[in-house]
Each structure stands twice: as structure tokens, then as C-alpha cells.
Design the sequence.
């Protein structure tokens, strides 16, 4: 940083600009946060923070001083082939081998990491790939649900947040290696900036949960930007600003804050359900899908009940000892709809529950699905429920969304969904149709939970 | 050697010659001793003194090479695989020509006799390498070779003597390393213990003790030489430990892969806990256990405490490495056995304490500087050991596996009826011959090779008849035997005291005839029960656990002949 | 001390160097160059690596490729299984051979004690020529002076020839300000292809006046008494021993993990392996430097092969094939280990390429080779030099088998890797890696380098690098066999990266 201007690394600038663009595009449609993000539980944000941390680490990587300037295209190619093959194989083979457990281990993330290492080697050289490999591996590891679930069990909320943040910053820690002073400054500066913004956002937005989500995001964005200013690289772009020390901080705060504010434009639902614990929903007989980990169980089954217009409904539940545990792994958001659909969303209040309802209509086949999502505390712990009621045109057979992993598509599609934990909507209805409430109440009555 | 030209280094000629000649020449007596053991063993087993574990190992070896599904994993993962893997080629080559190879367990006899002679040779070389003369060497070696307990186990086909062989070999190399500091000796010691792990798992105790000794000794020596202590100690410990670790990982990994169980020796079904549960019914009170342990040890080596006390004194006074090494290797094993027996995880069988015999006998080398007094002491200890072993192996209260052999030596018929005592072969032989004659198709007789029913496989001449746990798809065959072509079950009474066969566990009541669609085809008596062995023919599909559905659970008396 | 102006041109710098170090006459230079490049080719064309493959080898290669292609087209599973099994069997054979040689070497080394050097007066000592080829070595040339000064040998009996390529401006500029000792002079090698170290050494050999010749690299630090030890050993060894290899070691072992691995590698090879080979009487593949040779024998066997990128290995085998012997001396030369991964891969791939070249050259007349080396020698040369790069690659294959074994494959892929082959590969991987780790650990312990134990334990990761180098070398063997990939030196001084 010279007195004459603000020296910014070109690559970092490009990366940050890209991030802002992505956030803006995502915000341009109405974003709906997944149900029940608690103000003090940024756990679902682990999968968003980790890629950001990885980006920071990648952009921070510099060739060590004593390295000879050798380029070796042959080695680049040789080093890129095995990870590429292995990655492609994992993406292809993972779903077949693991079946339902695929969603727990997400080998496609590891496959993507390998493919990205291979591409890095091919395009940017083996040296960069070797330097980047650690951060990418840490990112893949941290994004695996099974790793995140390990943190979900920690009980005091503050400790859980601390653990989740540490986990999310693993790519940064691993990638920056031994430059501890710089790393410490980055993290502390970033977290401080982000926390400040988050607090500001919390005080001005109606939903506390959104602010919690932002805190983690802005922590990383803040770190990213702080890094821009601190990295001792040769100045590539000289932005002719006369910047004093005070204004530097202001720049940081403004940029990080704007990102945080964008994030806070997220309507969300509150966690709180009625105080009385209900009996948990669980299948009679065998469920169609079961993923059971210590502390969290996900089940999917089809239940028969006299509902109009259909007489069967699909139920997916995630049960865990605490809200964080069962919300960490939003497998419900991974339902694969048979046709391309775009939901219309609204919120219903029924029996003290805030229920998010999404209406899916398929233009091609005429199928219609209503998805009810809520969370409540039960005797078995916190349970998040996803109820899908299907109706078919002209009495055709019922079709439900599936939870089977799809080769390759899942890796690409759901990782972005999963990472951002967002779905793009087609509209928000202020006033829900009247029969929705009736469907829900009939179900709750039939399930004996009133 | 002559091709090396090393400036600045001179090769002491005698050392070179000695080094190269060290392992090359084999004296005349080890093969002779092995032959003597083999002859004794064949005599014993042909007269009915066959150890159960030994024959079971031979059967496992047979399943590796013969039968309908020969593959390495058939060697089983409950015991160390090495004895069976050594017996397997013997069976492959000679089973056709010498039927007793399998039926009487001669392959096992040959295996353990070879190891027995090797053990004595290692003992002899150990003593000679201490600088003793041929007289001392012969005395100590004879003290091992002629010890009744060692002789019994060298001729029986069990794994104790091979185990001792690896221990003494490792001991030899360990002491050589302590004396001369050559890493190759340490590596060889580690390799021997690695092989020992593949024979018996107690080697791990010896390995742990030796590793502690290695680290400590190396650290001590490094300090004297002014080198960094910790690093050298770690490096030496690793040099020693890696072969053992490799053997451990290999066996554990392979067993996990094939059976899904990491440690079959400790499994609930066939391993130690099973035996303890079925036979050790009720823990003995500690005082009684202590009494048994001390009687066993003192019975085998009456002057054991004297030798230990004197040995400690000598070691402290003259800083002898031998005693340290003995304690670290053999002493650790003995201590481990005592601990296991005391805590009840294994039973109080005499043979678990066999390691005190080489421990005491080898410790006598410490007393060589005492000249005549040392000789007298050695003779006394060895003589007492012979007498004590002879006495205790004839005592039914303490020795059960050894009694049959002792009984033969004194001319009385072999003792019957206990687990791991001699197994009675006539009944199994009769069943096997009947099956050989009656049954035409392969893979039609379901039998367990781990319970007492394995003897049928041993006695039969047609290994292809049997479906055993080593066969392909055994689990699915067990669930639906008729559909897989099985037509006969071989069963024994499901009583405590006889190890359960898998047939009895999956089809409870089969021996009593309570399973529907089965028919008694053949029966023969054993162990005082006139209808001990029963072969049931399947007339229709059966499935596990449906014994309660039989129309009537008929009781079978000896007068009912098999239905045709 | 010659100063130099920044604005000098390369030509002027060269002229200034020539002024200080006069070069031989033009005709002598041309003659020397011609001999250097074509000497071996003319006297022993069958031993020159000018062409990698000769007639029958080419046809054999073509036939093998055709058979493989046909096999894969018609019976892919069977062909694949057989091929993989053969490769794994070769790997197992090489492991066994290495273990045998290692055990022998360990025993040999353990039984020896050091004896002091007998006093030798200066008149008794023969004239010694040291060849120091330097190519683009700006950083290390300065330290060369120190190392040369430290040698304990009478200066009037010593001759150091610095071999510098004529157009190597970098080295010339670095040399200009240096004050070389009186016995050292610079020889400018005329610029010509192939641009290799052995060609430069051949050129230098032509002008060498010493009875004994050795090569050092610019960054080497030999033990001061090394030359005397060599003389003493030659005296005691007899006329048939014409070459002595000293032990190479690294002085920057603790710099990073790669240098540790590299040191473990060298320790195992030079401290235990080569004595093992020597004690069996097998051909000793020489190291790149510190091989002390009788000059007349060297000339008699044809000098170094300028087309071979590992001319030292080639020379070692050629010496044995001519009935001469190589020994080992117990003296250490310290070198700089490559501390950068990419640089290391390039260096190692050059070595592997050279090994394969060497083997292909010597196996041109297999019967004659068998006769001259003996069966054990033939096997050892094949497994230890020719097959080494192949086996590094096969190690990767056996790891793949292990991964497949553990993770499982779709049934269609299981056709290509049938179960027995996978088991074989996995077992070979397990035992092969365990053996190498163990052997390296013992070697470290034997040479009192216990601090390298961790590097020995993580050795299989080093093998990944070796496998990458092996693939690169295979490619280069086909594409550009005599291309000498220059290793960058001078990284040790920069400190841990």
C-alpha cells in the first residue's frame, strides 16, 4: 500500500467482483432461506463459508521465494491425469456404490476436488496445483455432511458456533500454511468486520435468523477483502486513490457491510414451535430411505391417509437431539422433482406451527405437489418434517419426488443448492389458498399429533 | 567378499570367515532329532493319542488344498495360519499315499517335530554363542530336547513348540544385537517374532517386552556413544517392531476382509471367550486360581524360583544382557499367560505355561562362570524339571491335553473324554467310512470344521463330500441347505463340554431329530454314549430355527436303526 | 581479479576468459571434440546410445505392440490380466533381488572396521585429474574454489579442468571474477550437439594429463582425504580394479521432506546397496560423481557415451563387460539434494531415461551380455537399472489394485481387473512397500541417521514422485532420448521454503 494509491492484486479483485456478482444474481429472484435457520446456529452456513475460505486461500497462494523458475508441461499433464480419472470415477461410481448413504458422504465432492486439482495442474501448472491441493481437499472434507454432523452434536450454542467457524475456516488454515501472523490478522479482521455487520443487520431486520446466517458469510467475505489489502504482492492494479488509514477501514466496512446487507434480505421462519413436545413422527414398518448417524436420523416413507385429492403422502423427517443437529443436514432440500418445477411459496400457521408451503406444478404433465415443511420439538428430539402431497391429473398414478442420487447431475446441481442452501422461487403468495390449511390439519390429525 | 576393496577399512579375516560360515553348516543331530520326534509322534497318534487342536489345524490345511473350494482363506482366522500353511503342502503331496497324513494328523506331527528340532538347535547355538563349550551346549540342549513336556508338544502337532522356536530364535538374535550392535540382528529378531505372531498371538507380549528392551538398551548405548538418545532408540525400536507390525496388520486385515471380524481369536464364536464360557463355567476363586498357576509352573519347573532369584542376582551383579533378554521375551510371555489365566480370559491349561521351561533352562547359561557349581546347579535344575514335568503331565487334575501321551508312555490306554484331550477317533472314523461308502455326490454333507465334528473330515478319504464354513457361499447354504444340494447333516449332542457345531446352533434340536424333513441315516457311539454321532438325511427343504415345527419330537434310543 | 563492466557482450567476456585461461590450438580442439562426440560410436558402435533401438529391438517392439493390440481387441480381459500379472511378477522379482542384495550389503558393511590411511609421500602420489563439468552454474561456481582448496593433495600433482560450454555466458560471467588456484584451468568446450555432460567430460579427458581421473560436480564437497584414499585403494586392489566409487551423501538433508527422502534414498543405495552388489561381484552402477578411474582404462573402454544421459551407469556396466572391476571406497562426497519437487522430478526422469537407455544399449546383444556379466549380473543389471523406472510405474499399478480392492468396482470394471490379479497386485503392493520402508529404515539406522526415521516410514509417498518421474522418462525416451534436462542448483542456500 503506497501513499499514492490503493494497490490491489488483480486476481483477488477479480475473485471478489465475481463473488459480488453471484450474490447479486442470487438475490435478484426472491430468495427464501430454508426453514428455521436459527440466529445462533450458523451451521448450515458451513458449506457456504468453506468455499469462500478456499477462494481466499487460493488467491493468497504465492510461489515460495526460493523456488526455481522451472515450468514443466510434461509433469503438469502427468500429474493431472490420475486425479482426473479418479475424480470422474468417484462422481460416476459414488451413487451406485453407496446408494442412500451417498448423501451422507458425498463422494462427488471429493471427485470434484480431484477434478479441480487436475484442471489446476493442466491450466495453471503443477506447482499451483500442489499448492492449491490442500485447500481444495480441506474444502471437500468440510463440505461433506458427515463431517458437519460431527459438530452438530456439541451442545452449548456458543461452542457449537466456534467449532463450526473453525471447521469452515479449515481450507484457509490449511492453505495459508505457516504464515500465522498474516492468517491471524485475516481471520480476526474478517470476523470482526463480519460480526459488526451482522449485529447491525440483526438490529434492523425483522428476522434474527437471517442475521446469524450473514455473520458467517460476512466473516469470510470480510476476510477476503481484508486479505486484498494486506497481501504483500506486487501491485498489479494501481487504483489512483488517495487513501488514508481511516478510509481504508471504511472501505472494508462498506464492502463487507453491503454483502451482509444483501444477505439479510432473506425472509425466514422462526424456529419456535409450541412449547409442548409432540410425539415424533416415525414410520410404521420399513421406511424407504434411512440414514442414521449418531444423533441424527433421516427417514423417508409413504404414508396412507384419507386426504383430498390424494390418499398417499410422502414424509421425510430428520430427527436429532437439538435443532442444530437436525437442521445441519437439510436433506429435504435434496428432493428431486420428476419434472422441472419452480415453486410458489407461502407460509401457513397451523396449531402453533409455522409451516412453509411450496406449491409445485409441472407444466408438462399436469402433476401438482404441495410440500409442507416445519420443525417442532418432539419427545425424541427436534424433528424437521417435510410432507409432500401429490395429485395427478385425470387419476393417473401418484408420483413423488425421489431422493436417489443422480450421477454427475447431483454433484453439479445439488452442490450449488446445497452449498448455498437456497432455492430459487417463482413467486411468493401473500395469501395462501384456503384448502392448504385443511390438508395440513387433516394430516396432523391423522398422524395423531394434535 | 574378495571383490570389495575398501580403502581405510580392513576386514578382520576370522570375523569374516566366521560370519559367512555362521549359518551355513548344519550338524548331524537336528535332522536326527526331528526324525526321532516324527517317529514318536506317529507311534502316538496311530495308537490314538491325537490332540484335538492339532488335528483341527491339519483339517484346516486340508481345506486349503483339497476339497471343493481350495483357497488360502480356508485356513481359518481363529488361530495363527502358519502351522496350517506349512502342513498344507505336506497334505498336497502325501495325502494320497499316506492316509494317516490327514486321518491321524501326521502332517501336524511332522510340522511340530521339525520346529522342535529347530528349537533345540537354536538353544544349542544360543549357548555356544555365549562362548560355552560343546558340553554345556549339549547339556542345555538336552535339557530342552528331552523334557517330557517339550517332547509331548513336539510330537503332538500343536503350535506351542513352533511358538517357542520363534521365541528362542528371536531371543538369540536379540542377544546378538545387544552384544554387537548390528541392525541386521535386530531385524532378524523382529522377523522371527513376526512369524511367531502368525503362529500364536501371545507373541505380541514378547514383542512388547522386547521392544521396551530394545528402546531402553539403544537409548543407554546411544548415551554412552554421545549420540542423540531418543532418535536412535526410536529408530531401533522401529527396526525391531516393523516386521511384527506387518504380520499383525496382514493377518488382521486379511481376517477382517474375509470374515468381517477383526480379531477372530477373540471372537465370541470360536475363540477364547467361547471356550471360557462353555468350559470355564463359573470363575474360580482367586486363591484357587493362584494355586493352580503356581502348581503348574512349579510342576513344570520345580526350581523355577531358585533360578529366577539367582538369575536376578547374577544379572545385577555382572550386568548380563542374557537375563534381560530372557525376561523381555520369554518372561513377558509367561507373565502374559499368568495374567490371562488370573483374570479368567483363558482357562488354566498346563500348556500355557510351557514358556517357563526354556526360560529356566536358558537362564542356566548365566551360571557357567561358576564352573562345577554351575554344572551341578544346571544338572539339578534340568533333572528336577524332567521329574516335575513327568509327574504333572500324568496328573489328571492339572494336565488334560498331555495325559494321552503320558498314558501311552506308561502303557495305559489313552485318556478319553475331555476337550482338547485326545479325541476319540473310532466314532468319527466309522461315520467317515460310512459316508465315503454311501454318499456319491460331492458337496452333500454339511459339517463344521471347528466343533468336534471336524474329525469326520479328517477321517474321510473324500474331502469333496463336505460343505464346511470354508466352502463358498457357506452362509447361504446354511440358510437353505436342501436347495443347495446338501443331503446330510453330521451332528453330535449339543451339550456343554463339547464345542458347539454350527449345525447345532442353526438347527437346534437336530440331534434329537426335532427338525422336520430330516431322517436319521446313521448313528454310532462314542464317549460312553451309544448314539453320539448321528447323520441325518434331509428329505426336504429345511430352514434354521424351525425345530419347533416338527410334528413330533421323537426320542431316539439305541435300538432304533436308521431308516432306509 | 578481473572486473567486468555491466555492458559487456558475451563474446567479450569469453575473450577475456580465454585471455586468462589459454585454450588449446584450434585443430586440437576440433580433434578432441570429434573424438568426444564420435569416439565411442566409431570404436564400439554397438555400445553407443546414439540410436536408442537397433534393428532387432525395433522389430521386437513392433511385434510386442502388435500382439498387445491384437490381444486387447480380441480378448481384453485375458490380455489385461496377463499383462498386469507379468508386470507385478517383475515387480516382485525386483523386490526379492533388492532384498537379497541389501541383506548381503548390510552384512558386509557391519563386519568392517576402519583402518587408518597409511602415510604416502608426495612423490609416491600419481597425478590426478579432476573434471568439473559446469553448465549454467552461476550460483555454485563460487563455492567450487573452497572445495578445491580443501582437498588434501599436493597441488603439483593435481589438475582440475573446469569444463564450460563455449556459449554458456552465465557460467563464464560467474567465473570471470573468481581467483582459481594454480592447478585449475578452464576448458571451453566448443558448442555442439549433443549438449551433455559426458561429451564435455570426454573432451576434457582428451586434455587430461593425470594417471587417475575423477569427476566432481560444481556443488560437490568431497572429503579432503578422498583422493588419497582412492590412491591407496587402487594400490591394494590390483590391476583389474580400475574404478572406485565413493559414497555420495547430501548436506542439506534437513531442509525439507523431499531432501530427507532423497537422503534416505541415497543412503540406502550408496551405504548398503552398492557394497552388497560389490560383494556379490555384480556390476556396480556408478554415481554421477566421485568415481575414480584409471585414465588409461577409461580411454581403452572408449570413454563416456555422449548420447547417454546417465553415462555413469553405462560406464560401470561397460567396465564389467570388458572384464574389469569396480570397487567401493569408504569416503564421502557431499552434494546438494534437490529441494524442489518439480526440479526433482526432472532430475529423476533424466536418470530413469538414462537407465532405460543404458539397458537398451547393453541388451542389444543379449547373449554376449549374458556371457560377459554372468547370469546373476545380467539379472541384476536388468532389474536394478533397466526395470527400475518400469517398476516405479508398476508400483502405481499395484496401488491402484489396492484401491480397487478396498473400494470395489462396478462389475463391468471387475472384468478388467479379475479378483486374483487384484489380490496379487494388492499383496505385491503391501509387501513391496513394506520391504522398501523397512530396508530404508535399517539403512538409516545403520548410518546413524535416526532422525530420518520418519522419512523412511513415509517413503511410499516419495514413490509417488518417482512414479511421476518414471512416466515422464518413458515419454521422453520415445520423444527425445538425448535431451539433458538441466537441474537447477543452489537452492539449499535459500533456506527452508
Sequence:
Amino acid at each position: 500500500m503506497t501513499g499514492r494509491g490503493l494497490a490491489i492484486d488483480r486476481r483477488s479483485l477479480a475473485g471478489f467482483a465475481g463473488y459480488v456478482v453471484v450474490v447479486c444474481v442470487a438475490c435478484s429472484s426472491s430468495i427464501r432461506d430454508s426453514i428455521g435457520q436459527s440466529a445462533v446456529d450458523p451451521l448450515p452456513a458451513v458449506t457456504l463459508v468453506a468455499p469462500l475460505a478456499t477462494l481466499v486461500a487460493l488467491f493468497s497462494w504465492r510461489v515460495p521465494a526460493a523456488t526455481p523458475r522451472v515450468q514443466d508441461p510434461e509433469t503438469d499433464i502427468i500429474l493431472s491425469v490420475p486425479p482426473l480419472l479418479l475424480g470422474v470415477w468417484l462422481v460416476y461410481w459414488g451413487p451406485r456404490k453407496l446408494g442412500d448413504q451417498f448423501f451422507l458422504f458425498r463422494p462427488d465432492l471429493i471427485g470434484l476436488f480431484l477434478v479441480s486439482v487436475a484442471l489446476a495442474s493442466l491450466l495453471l501448472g503443477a506447482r499451483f496445483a500442489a499448492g492449491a491441493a490442500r485447500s481444495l481437499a480441506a474444502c471437500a472434507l468440510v463440505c461433506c455432511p458427515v463431517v458437519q454432523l460431527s459438530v452438530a452434536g456439541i451442545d452449548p450454542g456458543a461452542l457449537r458456533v466456534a467449532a463450526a467457524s473453525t471447521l469452515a475456516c479449515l481450507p484457509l488454515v490449511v492453505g495459508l500454511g505457516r504464515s500465522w501472523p498474516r492468517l491471524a490478522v485475516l481471520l480476526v479482521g474478517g470476523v470482526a468486520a463480519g460480526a459488526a455487520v451482522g449485529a447491525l443487520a440483526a438490529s434492523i431486520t425483522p428476522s434474527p435468523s437471517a442475521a446469524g446466517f450473514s455473520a458467517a458469510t460476512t466473516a469470510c467475505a470480510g476476510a477476503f477483502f481484508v486479505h486484498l489489502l494486506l497481501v504483500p504482492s506486487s501491485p498489479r492494479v494501481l487504483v489512483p486513490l488517495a487513501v488514508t488509514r481511516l478510509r481504508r477501514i471504511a472501505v472494508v466496512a462498506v464492502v463487507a457491510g453491503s454483502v451482509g446487507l444483501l444477505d439479510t434480505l432473506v425472509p425466514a421462519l422462526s424456529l419456535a414451535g409450541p412449547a409442548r413436545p409432540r410425539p415424533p413422527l416415525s414410520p410404521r414398518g420399513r421406511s424407504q430411505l434411512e440414514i442414521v448417524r449418531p444423533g441424527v436420523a433421516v427417514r423417508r416413507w409413504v404414508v396412507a391417509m384419507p386426504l383430498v385429492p390424494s390418499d398417499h403422502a410422502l414424509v421425510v423427517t430428520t430427527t436429532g437431539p437439538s435443532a442444530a443437529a437436525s437442521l445441519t443436514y437439510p436433506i429435504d432440500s435434496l428432493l428431486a422433482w420428476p419434472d422441472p418445477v419452480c415453486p410458489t411459496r407461502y407460509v401457513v400457521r397451523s396449531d402453533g406451527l409455522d409451516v412453509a408451503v411450496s406449491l409445485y406444478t409441472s407444466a408438462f404433465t399436469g402433476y401438482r405437489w404441495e410440500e409442507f415443511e416445519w420443525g417442532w420439538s418432539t419427545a425424541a428430539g427436534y424433528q424437521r418434517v417435510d410432507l409432500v402431497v401429490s395429485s395427478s391429473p385425470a387419476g393417473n398414478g401418484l408420483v413423488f419426488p425421489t431422493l436417489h442420487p443422480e450421477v454427475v447431475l447431483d454433484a453439479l446441481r445439488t452442490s450449488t443448492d446445497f452449498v448455498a442452501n437456497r432455492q430459487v422461487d417463482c413467486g411468493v403468495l401473500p395469501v395462501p389458498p384456503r384448502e392448504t390449511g385443511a390438508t395440513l390439519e387433516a394430516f396432523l390429525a391423522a398422524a395423531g399429533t394434535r | 567378499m574378495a571383490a570389495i576393496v575398501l580403502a581405510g577399512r580392513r576386514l578382520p579375516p576370522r570375523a569374516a570367515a566366521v560370519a559367512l560360515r555362521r549359518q551355513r553348516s548344519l550338524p548331524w543331530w537336528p535332522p536326527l532329532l526331528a526324525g526321532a520326534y516324527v517317529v514318536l509322534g506317529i507311534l502316538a497318534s496311530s495308537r490314538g493319542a491325537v490332540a484335538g487342536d492339532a488335528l483341527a489345524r491339519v483339517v484346516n490345511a486340508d481345506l486349503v488344498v483339497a476339497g471343493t473350494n481350495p483357497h488360502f482363506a480356508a485356513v481359518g482366522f481363529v488361530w495363527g495360519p502358519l502351522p496350517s500353511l506349512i502342513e498344507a503342502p505336506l497334505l498336497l503331496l502325501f495325502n494320497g499315499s499316506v492316509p494317516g497324513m490327514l486321518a491321524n494328523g501326521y502332517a501336524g506331527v511332522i510340522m511340530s517335530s521339525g520346529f522342535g528340532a529347530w528349537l533345540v538347535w537354536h538353544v544349542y547355538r544360543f549357548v555356544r554363542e555365549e562362548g560355552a563349550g560343546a558340553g554345556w551346549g549339549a547339556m542345555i540342549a538336552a535339557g530342552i530336547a528331552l523334557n517330557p513336556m517339550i517332547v509331548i508338544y513336539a510330537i503332538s502337532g500343536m503350535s506351542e513348540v513352533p511358538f517357542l522356536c520363534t521365541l528362542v530364535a528371536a531371543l538369540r538374535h536379540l542377544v546378538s544385537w545387544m552384544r554387537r550392535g548390528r541392525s541386521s540382528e535386530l531385524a532378524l529378531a523382529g522377523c522371527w517374532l513376526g512369524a511367531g505372531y502368525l503362529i500364536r498371538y501371545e507373541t505380541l507380549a514378547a514383542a512388547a517386552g522386547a521392544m521396551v528392551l530394545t528402546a531402553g538398551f539403544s537409548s543407554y548405548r546411544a548415551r554412552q556413544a554421545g549420540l542423540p538418545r531418543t532418535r536412535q532408540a526410536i529408530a531401533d525400536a522401529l527396526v525391531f517392531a516393523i516386521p511384527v507390525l506387518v504380520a499383525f496388520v496382514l493377518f488382521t486385515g486379511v481376517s477382517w476382509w474375509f470374515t468381517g471380524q477383526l480379531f477372530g481369536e477373540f471372537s465370541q464364536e470360536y475363540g477364547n471367550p467361547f471356550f471360557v464360557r462353555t468350559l470355564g463355567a463359573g470363575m474360580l476363586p482367586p486363591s484357587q486360581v493362584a494355586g493352580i498357576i503356581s502348581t503348574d509352573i512349579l510342576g513344570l519347573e520345580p526350581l523355577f524360583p531358585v533360578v529366577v532369584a539367582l538369575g536376578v542376582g547374577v544379572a545385577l551383579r555382572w550386568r548380563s544382557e542374557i537375563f534381560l533378554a530372557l525376561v523381555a521375551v520369554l518372561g513377558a510371555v509367561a507373565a502374559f499367560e499368568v495374567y490371562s489365566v488370573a483374570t479368567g480370559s483363558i482357562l488354566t491349561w498346563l500348556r500355557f505355561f510351557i514358556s517357563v521351561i526354556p526360560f529356566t533352562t536358558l537362564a542356566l547359561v548365566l551360571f557357567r562362570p561358576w564352573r562345577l557349581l554351575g554344572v551341578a546347579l544346571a544338572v539339578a535344575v534340568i533333572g528336577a524339571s524332567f521329574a516335575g514335568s513327568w509327574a504333572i503331565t500324568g496328573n489328571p487334575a492339572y494336565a488334560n491335553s498331555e495325559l494321552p501321551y503320558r498314558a501311552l508312555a506308561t502303557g495305559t490306554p489313552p485318556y478319553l473324554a475331555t476337550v482338547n484331550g485326545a479325541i476319540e477317533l473310532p466314532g468319527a472314523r466309522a461315520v467317515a467310512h460310512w459316508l465315503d461308502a454311501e454318499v456319491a455326490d460331492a458337496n452333500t454333507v454339511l459339517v463344521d470344521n471347528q466343533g468336534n465334528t471336524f474329525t469326520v473330515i479328517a477321517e474321510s478319504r473324500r474331502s469333496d463330500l463336505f460343505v464346511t464354513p470354508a466352502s463358498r457361499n457357506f452362509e447361504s447354504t446354511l440358510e437353505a441347505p436342501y436347495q443347495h444340494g446338501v443331503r446330510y447333516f453330521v451332528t453330535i449332542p449339543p451339550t456343554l463340554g463339547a464345542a458347539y457345531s454350527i449345525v447345532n446352533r442353526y438347527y437346534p434340536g437336530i440331534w434329537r431329530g426335532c427338525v422336520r424333513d430330516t431322517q436319521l441315516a446313521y448313528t454310532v457311539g462314542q464317549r460312553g454314549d451309544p448314539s453320539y454321532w448321528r447323520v441325518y438325511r434331509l428329505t426336504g427343504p429345511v430352514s434354521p430355527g424351525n425345530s419347533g415345527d416338527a410334528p413330533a419330537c421323537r426320542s431316539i434310543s439305541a435300538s432304533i436303526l436308521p431308516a432306509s | 581479479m578481473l572486473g567486468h563492466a555491466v555492458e559487456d557482450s558475451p563474446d567479450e567476456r569469453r575473450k577475456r576468459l580465454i585471455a586468462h585461461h589459454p585454450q588449446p590450438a584450434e585443430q586440437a580442439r576440433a580433434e578432441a571434440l570429434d573424438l568426444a562426440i564420435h569416439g565411442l560410436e566409431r570404436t564400439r558402435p554397438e555400445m553407443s546410445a546414439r540410436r536408442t533401438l537397433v534393428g532387432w529391438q525395433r522389430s521386437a517392439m513392433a511385434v510386442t505392440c502388435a500382439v498387445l493390440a491384437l490381444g486387447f481387441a480380441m480378448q481384453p480381459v485375458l490380455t489385461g490380466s496377463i499383462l498386469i500379472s507379468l508386470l507385478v511378477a517383475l515387480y516382485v522379482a525386483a523386490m526379492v533381488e533388492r532384498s537379497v542384495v541389501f541383506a548381503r550389503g548390510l552384512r558386509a558393511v557391519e563386519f568392517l572396521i576402519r583402518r587408518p590411511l597409511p602415510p604416502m609421500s608426495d612423490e609416491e602420489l600419481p597425478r590426478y585429474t579432476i573434471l568439473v563439468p559446469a553448465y549454467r552454474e552461476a550460483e555454485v561456481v563460487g563455492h567450487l574454489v573452497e572445495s578445491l582448496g580443501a582437498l588434501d593433495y599436493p597441488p603439483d600433482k593435481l589438475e582440475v579442468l573446469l569444463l564450460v560450454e563455449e556459449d554458456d555466458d552465465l557460467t563464464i560471467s560467474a567465473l570471470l571474477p573468481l581467483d582459481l588456484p594454480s592447478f585449475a584451468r578452464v576448458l571451453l568446450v566448443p558448442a555442439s550437439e549433443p549438449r551433455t555432460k559426458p561429451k564435455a567430460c570426454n573432451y576434457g579427458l582428451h586434455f587430461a594429463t593425470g594417471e587417475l581421473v575423477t569427476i566432481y560436480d560444481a556443488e560437490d564437497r568431497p572429503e579432503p582425504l578422498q583422493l588419497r584414499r582412492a590412491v591407496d585403494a587402487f594400490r591394494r586392489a590390483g590391476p583389474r580394479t580400475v574404478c572406485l566409487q565413493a559414497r555420495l551423501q547430501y548436506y542439506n538433508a534437513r531442509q525439507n521432506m523431499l531432501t530427507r527422502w532423497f537422503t534416505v534414498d541415497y543412503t540406502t543405495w550408496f551405504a548398503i546397496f552398492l557394497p552388497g552388489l560389490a560383494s556379490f561381484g555384480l556390476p556396480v552402477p556408478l554415481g554421477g560423481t566421485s568415481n575414480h578411474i584409471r585414465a588409461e582404462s577409461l580411454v581403452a573402454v572408449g570413454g563416456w557415451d555422449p548420447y547417454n544421459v546417465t553415462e555413469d551407469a553405462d560406464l560401470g556396466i561397460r567396465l564389467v563387460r570388458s572384464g574389469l572391476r569396480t570397487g567401493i571406497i569408504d569416503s564421502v562426497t557431499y552434494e546438494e539434494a534437490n529441494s524442489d519437487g518439480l526440479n526433482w522430478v526432472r532430475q529423476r526422469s533424466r536418470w530413469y531415461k538414462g537407465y532405460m537407455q543404458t539397458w537398451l544399449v547393453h541388451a542389444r546383444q543379449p547373449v554376449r551380455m549374458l556371457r560377459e556379466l554372468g547370469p546373476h549380473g545380467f539379472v541384476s543389471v536388468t532389474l536394478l537399472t533397466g526395470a527400475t523406472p518400469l517398476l516405479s510405474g508398476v508400483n502405481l499399478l499395484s496401488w491402484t489394485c489396492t484401491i480397487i480392492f478396498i473400494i470395489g468396482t462396478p462389475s463391468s470394471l471387475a472384468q478388467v481387473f479379475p479378483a486374483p490379479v487384484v489380490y496379487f497386485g494388492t499383496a505385491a503392493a503391501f509387501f513391496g512397500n513394506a520391504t522398501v520402508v523397512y530396508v530404508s529404515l535399517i539403512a538409516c539406522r545403520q548410518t546413524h541417521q535416526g532422525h530420518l526415521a520418519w522419512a523412511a516410514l513415509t517413503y511410499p509417498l516419495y514413490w509417488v514422485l518417482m512414479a511421476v518421474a518414471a512416466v515422464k522418462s518413458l515419454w521422453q525416451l520415445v520423444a527425445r532420448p538425448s535431451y539433458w534436462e538441466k537441474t537447477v542448483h543452489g537452492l539449499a542456500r535459500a533456506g527452508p521454503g
Notes: Strands of chain B lie at 9-10, 445-446, 466-467, 488-491, 518-526, 529-538. Chains B and A do not touch (no CB pair under 8 Å). DSSP finds 23 helices and six strands in chain B.
